[in-house]
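tool_call: predict_structure(chain=1)
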Amino acid sequence: MRISIKHITLIFSALIASQQAAGHYPILDCAFSTDATTSEDIVRCEASFSDRSKAPNVIMEVFSEDDEVLSKGHTDETAMYQFDRPEGAFFVIMDAGPGHVLEISDEDVFETAGE
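tool_result:
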């Protein structure tokens, strides 16, 4: 069997493409904070990927422990999403498309320094 340069190039390209497609995963960093203008307790989340790219305009949903929708929207152009701090337990879902969905619980949300 004779393998040509064209076949080797196609195989190599397919391997690289498959690694790039599966090469990053979603990251969601959320913190409890206080809104400076209203003094309300809020949660601020930054959505990104493991390749350090930001994730603007991705779907964000916040649910209570009883699966009630508490907040729903999209990250802004800077990949940020904020919502009022819920009473009780909650979880946040970041949906950046197939294979890029992440869920974190309120236990994964950190306190901002000084609070």
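agent: The CA atoms of residues 16 and 46 lie 29 Å apart. Proceeding to next step.
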